[in-house]
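note to self — DONT lose this again. spent like an hour looking for the file last time. sequence + predicted structure for the chain T wanted, 416 res
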Amino acid sequence: MDTPKKTSVFSNLTTQILIAMILGAILGIFIHNNWNPESAKEFSTYIKLLATIFIRLVQMIIAPLVFTTLVVGIAKLGDIKAVGRIGGKALGWFFSASLISLLIGMFWVNLLQPGVGLQLADLDVSTAAEVTEKTQHFSAQNFVEHIIPKSIAEAMATNEILQIVIFSIFFGLAAASIGDYAKPVVTALDKTSHIVLKMVNYVMKFAPIGVFGAIAGVFAVRDFSELLITYAKYFGSFLVGITSLWVFLLVVGLIFLGRRLKTLLQHIVSPLIIAFGTTSSEAVFPKLTEELERFGVKDKIVSFMLPLGYSFNLDGSMMYMTFASIFIAQAYGIDLSVGTQLTMLLVLMLTSKGIAGVPRASLVVVAATCGMFDIPIEGIALILPIDHFCDMFRSATNVLGNALATSVVGKWEKES
């Protein structure tokens, strides 16, 4: 059932965020056009502190929220069979959505070929140094270490969502197996989760200011119109791909949720816009948790599905990974057979899991994949100038994908 309180498509917070985005863009463009580059860069550094403050406030509550809600959710499920059933449905959805997202990216980059004929003479490879340095440490050992925690305290301190999820699953299953003896602990964690969710309301009041700072900071140092002309084919092709993915996700959502899809979209408008403005799907994790429960998904489903989704179900990022990897190959004139591209797709499917929370995770995975297939890693420098604007759409798409996955699995569980 939906809650009695009806959510407006343009709630007060949503309206404030939209206004903040517009004002931020206006201020940023004014600074870019009227100040010298050094002053504009300094302004950008300071104004982005507003976004940093907001994102850090959100990150502050993610670890306790994931731990408390997931443990309580698993304890309420009651047994390993229920956890296995829901986990099976979740992973089935996640891997299917990831595969289709990768295929959509592969289809459009091959059809539109945005990298063909690109001039590489003026490519500044030094801009990719940060990403390529992280790629050097991208190995099977580091991948496993990123997933399996050696200390829950360290995992919480660094906001490693997947590590926290793994510990919470073990903790929740142990609590469920003990039964009544663990009830005081579960009850305490349940009350703690409600306190943390109340903190979400306080933190979200700062969202418009954070979005304002993020947008103003970007437009102060980037000439969007010049970037758009330079990267028109690349950005346009990317938008075609991401729009196709949205259409696919919404159609699937309509099939499973019917008319309630509209209600769901009304609930997640604010999280979508925050993710778009801050280029961080992580920044809306607490707010999305709250809105999905208001939509009517049981708290035990939300607390189980959403942390898993943030590790395994990044649809926008997945679509971008195949798109960007093949684009770089096209730019260097490297012809990849269909078989090679499908192999690349499978590699991306595996290596991208559990990368949530890694800074510029999509670019790191793209660079690592390029290295595996003898595509110059420094080609990342080609897409860095426009990547922030692509990331806005990727982040919003990740939020939509996780909201749909959680809602659909919630409906399946209600019917089972």
